[in-house]
C-alpha cells in the first residue's frame, strides 16, 4: 500500500509540474525574441538521453528556474537535426544549452546536466552579459 501511495504522489507531482512553453522552431524563437527584446535559450537534446530528461523535468521545471525562464524565448531541438545544423549549433554531448541575443550573438554555451542552484548561478552570468 505504501508503494502505491508513493507512486500516486510521484505521478501527481508530474501532472502539476511547471510546463515550459517551448517555441516550435529556432526561426520562430528568434522572431519572437526580436519583437520582445528577449534572450533566446536553445536546448539541444536527443531522444534517449536520460540527462536531457532530468534537466528538462527536474531543473528547468523547478519553480525558481521556471520563473526565470519566463523572461526568455525558449526552444528545443534535436542534436543532429537539420535545424541545429542550419543554425550552426556545434553539439558533441547533450544536453547542450545555448543563450543568444535577439540578434543571434552567442552569450553562453554549456554542456551537461545542471542542478537547480548551479543553473540559476549560470543563468545569472548570462543575464550580466545580456545587460551589457
Q: Can you characterise this structure?
A:
The protein has six helices and four strands, in the order H-H-E-H-H-E-H-E-E-H. Strand 3 (96-100) and strand 4 (106-111) form a beta hairpin. The longest helix is centred in the N-terminal third of the chain and has 15 residues, at 2-16. The protein has a four-stranded mixed beta sheet, sandwiched between helices. The model is unreliable at 5-16 (pLDDT under 50). It has a single domain, classed as 3-Layer(aba) Sandwich (Glutaredoxin). It has 132 residues and is an alpha+beta fold.
Tell me the layout of helices and strands.
Layout: H1 2-16, H2 26-36, E1 39-45, H3 50-59, H4 63-69, E2 72-78, H5 82-86, E3 96-100, E4 106-111, H6 116-130
Parallel strand pairs: 1-2
Antiparallel strand pairs: 1-3, 3-4
Pattern of helices and strands: HHEHHEHEEH
Parts with pLDDT < 50 across at least 5 consecutive residues: 5-16
- Per the CATH scheme, the topology name is Glutaredoxin
Q: Specify the CATH homologous superfamily.
A: Glutaredoxin
Strand tally? 4
The tally of structural domains comes to: 1
Q: Radius of gyration in whole Å, from Cα?
A: 16 Å
How does CATH name the architecture? 3-Layer(aba) Sandwich
CATH class: Alpha Beta
Number of helices: 6
Strand order of the largest sheet: 2-1-3-4
Quaternary form? single chain
Strand residue percentage = 15-25%
Average pLDDT value? 90
Spatial separation of the terminal alpha carbons: 56 Å
Helical fraction equals: 40-55%
| Largest pleated sheet | 4 strands, mixed
Amino acid at each position: 500500500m505504501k508503494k502505491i501511495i508513493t507512486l500516486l504522489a510521484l505521478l501527481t507531482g508530474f501532472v502539476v509540474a511547471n510546463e515550459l512553453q517551448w517555441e516550435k522552431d529556432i526561426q520562430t524563437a528568434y522572431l519572437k525574441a526580436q519583437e520582445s527584446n528577449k534572450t533566446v535559450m536553445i536546448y539541444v537534446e536527443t531522444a534517449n538521453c536520460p540527462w536531457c530528461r532530468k534537466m528538462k523535468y527536474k531543473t528547468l521545471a523547478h519553480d525558481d528556474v521556471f520563473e526565470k525562464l519566463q523572461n526568455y524565448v525558449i526552444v528545443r531541438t534535436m542534436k543532429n537535426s537539420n535545424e541545429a545544423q542550419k543554425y550552426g549549433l556545434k553539439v558533441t554531448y547533450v544536453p547542450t544549452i545555448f543563450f543568444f541575443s535577439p540578434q543571434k550573438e552567442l552569450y553562453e554555451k554549456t554542456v551537461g546536466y545542471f542542478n537547480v542552484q548551479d543553473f540559476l548561478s549560470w543563468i545569472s552570468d548570462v543575464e550580466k552579459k545580456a545587460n551589457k
